[in-house]
Fold these 2 entries.
Entry 1:
Amino acid sequence: MRDHTKNLCKLSDIGTVARGKSKHRPRNDPALYGGRYPFIQTGDVKHSNFYITEYSQTYNERGLSQSKLWEPGSLCITIAANIAETGILAMPACFPDSIIGFIPDKGKADVRFIKYYLNTYKLQMQSISMGTTQDNLSLEKLLSIRFKIPPLPIQQKIAAILSTYDDLIENNKRRIALLEKMAEEIYREWFVRMRFPGYCKVKFKKGFPEEWRNLSSIEVFDVLSGGTPKTNIPTYWNGNIPFFTPKDAKNNYYVLNTEKNITRNGLSNCNSRLYRKNTIFITARGTVGKLVLAQRDMAMNQSCYALLPKTTSGIYFYFLSLNNAITYIKGISKSGVFDNIIVDTFKQIPIDLPPKRLMDAFNDRVGPLFDQVSCLLEKNETLSSSRETLLGRLISGKLPTESLDIQHPPSMQNKQDVDHAQLHL
């Protein structure tokens, strides 16, 4: 087996390394935000797959003046909070000093390879970041690590092989976004604009169908809570039951996997029941108002609620009704310094309830869209797992790059699928 590695080197030997900037204090000064410049935070890096394309905050001109705008293709490396996460900027963006930026020397390094390579060093980087008070990687600690970097042509070949998986994952993510947008648009057409099938034959009173009912969410759902098994009892943890917390609520309709799992023994010794597939979870503390469907049976901690419709039909209608009301939910969840949702909050959230036949027709209409979203999310999980296995073998040299053809994974979908979905919006 040929060893393509060369002498050990630091990141600064193969590119430019610097911390991000956010000099203004306090950092959360509203005067800095709300402009057109993406402001990337550690959570945005953590939740990116490969390229950083999504963000929750933006800087205005004032924010930009006390920060720095990094170019697309810069590698972001988190050094606080979510330590040793990486992502490549897909657009010009700012980020704070809790993120380190790496710009490769194009004659020495391929930024895609460096990102993949650092992923294999994540545990090592996290271990050297441990401190007595607060974990922090720091620029000095990062530059103390010596890496075995192969010649540029080998980097490029490895990156090309691995990026086929990430290209497919990103393609699937775009398809998921389009499918979710289609479902939301159908909901708005039927239940906001009131142009549902047969609407022209329905009697309206003050713009509201006479046979519909206006109820509060507490009348529509059983609102159930969760609980956490004792963390100091090993037999409660690392089982095969997903344990949902607000950290697991991403931006998709479904949650497939969770950061933590519990055992049957753990489930028996906490205040959570085992919630079935398609249970609606809503985060109630911390990040408030994130709404997801359980893609499989899961337990849940006490910072969330499970919403079980009191009727057995219409789960997609109920989910999209709440999803449509999220802005309203967040508006009424203010309580002192912290945002939170309590059981009584659901007394204030209205649900316009159509007849069962219309809910069933809506479920039949959007159900295939939800099924496709679930399927694509599962495919992405499989692709991510396969990529990680291949990554370790390529980086270690156990799988020689000379013997590999650069080709798409067997399940690679044509980009036309995305274009086709776009036509239906």
Note: The first helix runs from residue 42 to 47.
Entry 2:
Amino acid sequence: MRDFSQRQSQLFLLVTTFLVRYEPPALHTLLDDDVAEALSALASTFETASRGVIYDHRPASALAERLTMALKPVLAEAGQGAGSSFQSDAAVVLRRLAEAIRGVRALEPANRQAFLDLLRRIVTKTPDAGDGAAPAADAPDRTRLIVP
């Protein structure tokens, strides 16, 4: 994220929050590979659109396709009135996330949800009290519920 523009940073936060809150269809487990495939397909779609070509790239797996179809309206709403540079910004963010997924998966090849687990820990982490002190070891766990 260090070299993202402000809009790219906002898109990054939008997509990562969406991924944490996404509920896959019943009896299906969302894996990092599905997420990377969906994000890569969307990035390709945005890249071709930024060149003036309308072509909908589709992921190969059904679960990645469902994720793509759920994420598209979120990105379309975010891009309303944003101008033509939105497409290239979205493509950059989606590509970077797909690369991050592959990087995390390389570090933990046995965990097929390593990136999603990391994302859940980061996005749902509750801030400590303002005094800067660490919570006591015997203190009960805080709720991790995120209220919009």
Note: The chain has one domain: 6-123.
